[in-house]
Amino acid sequence: MLSFLGRTGRFSLEQIAAMGRVFFFLMSAIFLAFRRPAKFYLIIHHIKTIGVDSLSVVALSGFFTGMVMGFQGYYSLRKFNAESWLGSATALGLLRELGPVLSAFMVTGRTGSAMAAELGTMRATEQIDALDSMAINPIKYLVSPRIIASLLAMPLLTAIFDVIGIFGSYLVGVNLLGVSSGSFFAGMENSVVFHDVYSGFVKSISFGLIITWICCYKGFYAPPMATGVSQATTESVVLSFVLILIWDYFLTSIML
Amino acid sequence: MIQVINLCKSFRGQQVLKGVNLEFTSGKITTIVGTSGCGKTVLLRHLNALLRPDEGAVLIDGVDITKLPQKELYEMRSKFGVLFQGAALLDSMSVYDNVAFPMREKTKCTESDIKKKVEERLEQVGLGAMGGKFPAELSGGMKKRAGLARALIMDPEIVLFDEPTTGLDPVLATSIHQLIARTHATFGFTGVLVSHTIPQVFDISDYVAMLVNGTIEEVSATKTFCASQNPVVHQFLQGKTEGPIQVL
Prior knowledge:
Order of helices and strands of chain A: HHHHHHHHH
Largest sheet of chain A: none
Helix content of chain B: 25-40%
Oligomer: heterodimer
Structural class of chain B: alpha/beta
Shape of chain A: elongated
Number of domains of chain B: 2
Radius of gyration of chain A: 22 Å
Largest interface: A-B, 14 and 21 residues
Mean pLDDT of chain B: 91
Mean pLDDT of chain A: 93
Largest sheet of chain B: 6 strands, mixed
Strand content of chain B: 25-35%
CATH topology of the largest domain in chain B: Rossmann fold
Number of domains of chain A: 1
Strand content of chain A: under 5%
CATH class of the largest domain in chain B: Alpha Beta
Number of strands of chain B: 10
Order of helices and strands of chain B: EEEHEEHEHHHEHEEEHH
Radius of gyration of chain B: 18 Å
C-alpha cells in the first residue's frame, strides 16, 4: 500500500514538474522575444515557412470544406425551406469555428511537425548545444521568432481559409444547387457581426501559439536519437490537435 | 587556467563522474583519454557549463562557471570555442555562414570585416574554396575543418575538442591533428581534447589525463604518461583485455 502511494506520489510530482517545464519554456520564449537584439530576419523567414508555405494546403482545404458545407447546409436547410440562409450558415460556421480549427490542423500537420522534426534533429546533431556554447540563447534564436511568426501568420491563414471556404460554398449553393446569389450574400450580411470575425481571430491567434509552443518544446527536448525525433514529431502533432480542440471548447464557451 | 574540483555527476541514478580533480595548464593542449563510456565527454561538457554538476566546481581563471547566472555564463562562454564530435554545423547555412555566424550574432563587425576574417579562417583550415557548400555536401573531415574554423573565429582563449578524429581514416585523423597543432601554434589557445586516437593524439598533446571509473587515474606530461608503470595506464595503452580495467 505504501509503495503504491509512493509510486503515485512520485508520478504526480513528475507530471507537475513536466508541466512546469512546458510553461517555463513558453514564458522564456515570450520573455526573450522582447529582449534585444530583435531577430526580424528570422521572424520574416518563419512567416514564410508557417504562412506562405502553408498557403496552398490551407486554401485547398478551405475550398473543399466550403463546398461540403454548401452541400450539407443546403440539405439541412431545405428541410425547413430555409435554403436562402445557406450563406449565413456557411459564413458563421467558417468564421466562428471551422476556419480557425481546420486551418490550425493544417498548419500543425504541415509546419508544426516540421518544426518538431527540425529542432529534434538539431538536438540530436548537437546543433542546439553548439548555439549554447557560442553564447547564443537557443530559445531566443530558434523558438521566439517562430512564436511571433505564428501569431502573425495564423490569423491571415484563417482569413484566407474563411474567404475561400465561403467562395466554395457559394459555388456549390448558387451555381450547382440553385440558391439565389442575392439571398446567399444578404443572409450573410444580415447575420454576421464583428464579434463573429473577432472570436475567430482570437481563436486562430491562440491556436498559433499552441502549435509553435508544443511543437517547439517537443522538438527542443527530443531524446537525441532517430526514434526520439520521430516520437517527438508524432507527440507534437497529436498533443497540438488535442490541445486545439480542448482550448477551442473553452474559448467557444467564453466567447459565445 | 581551468581547475576542476571534486566534480560529480549522475544520470538517472548512475554516477558517471565521482569526484574528478584536474587542472588544465594555460596555453597547452591536454588530452583526456579513457575507456568508452567512462565520462570523458561528460567532463568536457562541464568545462563550459553545457552540463551542470551535482557537486563540485569548475574554475575558469578563478571564477566558478557552474554557479554563474546566464548573462555572466554567456560572457564566460565567449572565451570558449568548441569543436563537437559531429562538428554540429548548422545545416541550414553554408560553410561560410556557419563560420561567420558567431561574429554576426555576437559582434558589431561590418560584413566586410567578417568576410575578411572568415576567409582567413577557412584558408587556415584548408577550406578556402568550400565556403559556398552546405554541411550535407561535405565529407566528415571537411565538416571537422569547418567546425574548427567556426570554433576559432572569435579568437577563443580555450578550445574544447570532442573526439575530433572519430570516424575518420588514419590519414585524415593525422591531418586533423596537424591542423589542431598548427592552429594552436598560431593562436596559443588552451586546448582540451577528448580522443580515442591513441597513440597519434599524443603527438600534439602537452599533457594527458586518464579517466577511469569516474575519477582521474593519472595525469602527467605526455612522455611521462606514455612511460607510466601504472597498470591501468599500461593496460589501456597496450590495448590488453587482461588487467585492472574490467572488460565486459
